[in-house]
Amino acid sequence: MKSTENLAAEANAGAQQHAAPHRTRIKLCGLSKPEDVSLTIDLGADAIGLVFYPPSPRSVSVAQAVELVHDVPPFISVVGLFVNATPDWIREVASNVGLTLLQFHGDETAEQCESLASVAGLPWLRALRVAADTQPADLVKSALNYSAASALLFDTHVEGYGGGGKVFDWSLIPAELARRAVLSGGLNAQNVSDAIHRVRPYAVDVSSGIEVPGAKGVKDHARMAAFVRAVRAADAE
């Protein structure tokens, strides 16, 4: 009779022999219509992103969000994006909408992120804006500062808080941070394959790259599908 150790070794060997390629997780963000969420689910994306920042053209109300997440099945993350939010706003959204993760995209310190997350009782990720003069050492320092975050989202530094459709220099992301990295900033179906090959991020996050050109917040279903296909093709190469 084989020992437990032998069975485990055989199982591990078989898993390595038939190991699947790395699967980059996908978050489609800034969704505001039920049909956008339904397509996101049908495409097999891992997360939907809802914006709770009223100045944004992609922002949704609590009532809208409740409708949007009504039919989201298990194991698909619902990420709430906040910018310099108050504890009361976090509490209101979290108590009414079935969020599974908070995304802090403003000027929140590590201490503020942890405090706000505790209000909701949810894990969180922190967006780090990468500017032209940002150095890899700066990102490593920020990663250490936000060590309690579930992940780090790397976005392009633009006026305002994200959604500018601008790409930053991906080579600035140190390899040791890639496994925690959610890559964002100007991604689309045409460049996401190159981004995945160069960075090997844990996940990719897209918003403006899946929208009708010139219409912020209006999702283009063909672009949504093309983006997901491009990510899966990159993983398979």
From TrEMBL:
An example Gene Ontology biological process: L-tryptophan biosynthetic process
CDD domains: PRAI
Keyword Isomerase part of the UniProt annotation: yes
Reactions catalysed according to its record: N-(5-phospho-beta-D-ribosyl)anthranilate = 1-(2-carboxyphenylamino)-1-deoxy-D-ribulose 5-phosphate
InterPro entries listed in its UniProt record: Aldolase_TIM (IPR013785), PRAI_dom (IPR001240), RibuloseP-bd_barrel (IPR011060), TrpF_fam (IPR044643)
Domain N-(5'phosphoribosyl) anthranilate isomerase (PRAI): 27-229
Keyword list, A-Z: Amino-acid biosynthesis, Aromatic amino acid biosynthesis, Isomerase, Tryptophan biosynthesis
EC numbers: 5.3.1.24
Record pathway: Amino-acid biosynthesis; L-tryptophan biosynthesis; L-tryptophan from chorismate: step 3/5
Amino-acid biosynthesis recorded as keyword: yes
Pfam families: PRAI
GO molecular function: phosphoribosylanthranilate isomerase activity
Enzyme class: isomerase
Sequence similarity: Belongs to the TrpF family.
NCBIfam families hit by this protein: PRK01222.1-4, PRK01222.1-6
Name assigned to this protein: N-(5'-phosphoribosyl)anthranilate isomerase
Organism: Paraburkholderia madseniana
